[in-house]
Amino acid sequence: AMEVTKDNFKEVLPLVIQAINQSNFIAIDGEFSGLRGTKQFNLFDYPSERYKRVREECTDFLLIQMGICCFKYDICLRKVVHEAYDFYIFPNGEGSFLSQASSLSFLASHGFDFNKLFKSGITYLNNVEELERQKHIQAWSQSSDSNNEGRDIDIPDQWKDHMSSVCQAIEEFLISDEESLKLEKTNAFVRRLIYQTVKKKYPTVFLELSGKENNDKVLVVHKGNEMDKALLKQRQCEEKWKELDEDVGFSKVISAIATSKKLVVGHNMLLDICHMMNCFHKPLPAEYEDFKKELQQLFPCILDTKTMASLAPYKDVINFTDLPKLYEQLNKEPFGIPNIDIASQKSGYQVDCDSQFHKASYDSFITGCCFLGLYSDLAKSKSITTIDLDLIKRYTNKIFMSRSIDINLFNIVKEDGSIIFDFSVTHVGCHFRDSRSQSRVLRDFPGKLEMRKYIQIVSTIR
């Protein structure tokens, strides 16, 4: 697979967008700075409750690597081909995030390059952050730097020496060959004094209020007239828009996938989808129903291979649904994965030759292979030239919900199923070694039910 960092992202981006637009479907997989794991989940969670738990996790941990694998049928080769990409992703700015020692150690043991992540990770902004930056640039471009509206103010005695030194510095600057002069950092009041003084005494220079230096704004003196000032501001404005475009970064890839409306395939993909929405689209909504609506608009057709393998007709014939074992089962009778090659002059994986599980691009590749294995079984054909969405309609837009007693999926386009607990006829038989074991089981029962409704057969082993 091709590794993509901020060093080669600009040149690779057009190739990725082209691959997305030409694909029959796109497989995705993410790696994270940490995972809370299934122990935080309640066996009796409703989908809305589970979503809120996952939403909290997405705001704490980072998505640090994204694997994208584009599959298409090649008419000339008469087979399915793919191209795979590994994107190292790291946010720009002053934000903080959580990391989990076990997760980082696990990734490192599978060859994850953290130096590459921190040094060359691709930046990103979601739509809300991008819009805020756009408004800031627009306001800046329309503002006046003169800061001298209203009548002049008298220079207080305590600032007269300072203003004298500023004037002396500007006069020395005017007879020098320097193009600009950075003044000492100071407060807003003194900056106003400088503005009014420069306007009166030095018509051949203009002032620029630069960004921030050590959290303090700095005035810069430039030689030239008002036209020169306008040209400088125009160049600076263009630079700010260019910088924003670069900071949007990897979000452009997700935007291209969303715009393409192509089938997006993942495996146990709830975390992948939630992180993608939160990082590259907009912050995850607080309410579950709003999340479903937002997801439908962003990715109208998604498929979770773990869901597909867990539903009829496969739930009775597929014994394991974790990705490596699912791939192993689908790669032999009575199933079979179609012949898949690497697209011409592209990067990818050779089936059964490059086992690199837990590398995002490889996991996305294997996810795509599993989907093709299941799809070819449904289609009763190993020759796949296109994806018939009607054939897989019963599996689309249903995300697997792990560690759940009754409901095992999130139904994105329809109302979720209901959990019916009939405790008048249900007995829970457990053997507890101690009271702690008993409490661990009981804590997973729905809190809304009264304790008297539980019918238990408890046998304590002494």
From TrEMBL:
GO MF annotations, alphabetized: 3'-5'-RNA exonuclease activity; RNA binding
Pfam families: CAF1
Gene3D superfamilies in alphabetical order: R3H-like domain, Ribonuclease H-like superfamily/Ribonuclease H
Gene Ontology annotations of biological process type: nuclear-transcribed mRNA poly(A) tail shortening; priRNA 3'-end processing; siRNA 3'-end processing
GO-annotated cellular components: nucleus
Stated family: Belongs to the CAF1 family.
Family annotation (PANTHER family): POLY A -SPECIFIC RIBONUCLEASE/TARGET OF EGR1, MEMBER 1, POLY(A)-SPECIFIC RIBONUCLEASE PARN
Protein name: Uncharacterized protein
Taxonomic source organism: Argulus foliaceus
